[in-house]
Design brief:
Pectate Lyase C-like, Pectin_lyase_fold/virulence, Pectin_lyas_fold, Cell surface protein, 20% helix, RHGA/B-epi-like_pectate_lyase
């Protein structure tokens, strides 16, 4: 093997076997720069996503995140929780304007992962309110994908969302 090829091979090996070459983990939890307030947590989550570089992971810690508007995904960023029983995204005030919006919006982006948490659309409290008038479908909540590619969604549970 030529010395030039050997050096390139060695550098590639070091890069792919080192954590420094993989994306950073941005933790979203109390005690970090992305500290939760207990309401409008989508602002903190969205700030973490927007600050992420290609290949980074926004890690949602084991807690309940209260949101009142959508989470907006970005290309080449992963959004992960610590498990369906541990990390919950809860939609506050189901009777508000947010009731007709998506929970997570993915528009024209690529190479994303969404995994390991529970989304509670809080639709259960709307059921009785709208059952008689058959308006429940107006309050569906979802992960919305439009014009996206290389999307991986796994270990995600949605309840009271549709």
């Amino acid at each position: 093997m030529e010395p030039k090829n050997l050096i390139i091979s060695l550098l590639l090996f070091i890069c792919f076997s080192s954590e420094n070459c993989s994306g950073a983990i941005i933790n979203v939890d109390p005690g970090t720069s992305f500290n939760l307030t207990g309401s409008d947590d989508q602002n903190v989550i969205n700030a973490a996503i927007q600050s992420a570089n290609s290949g980074d992971t926004v890690q949602l810690e084991s807690t309940t995140f209260h949101i009142s508007s959508p989470i907006i995904m970005k290309s080449e960023v992963a959004l992960k929780g610590n498990g369906i029983g541990a990390t919950v995204i809860y939609c506050d005030d189901p009777g508000s304007n947010f009731a007709t919006q998506n929970i997570i919006n993915c528009n024209g982006i690529t190479d994303i992962e969404i995994s390991n948490f529970l989304i509670d659309g809080s639709w259960g409290s709307l059921s009785k309110m709208y059952a008689a008038s058959n308006k429940c479908r107006e309050h569906e909540k979802r992960v919305y994908l439009s014009g996206c590619s290389n999307v991986v969604i796994h270990d995600l549970k949605m309840q009271y969302s549709a």
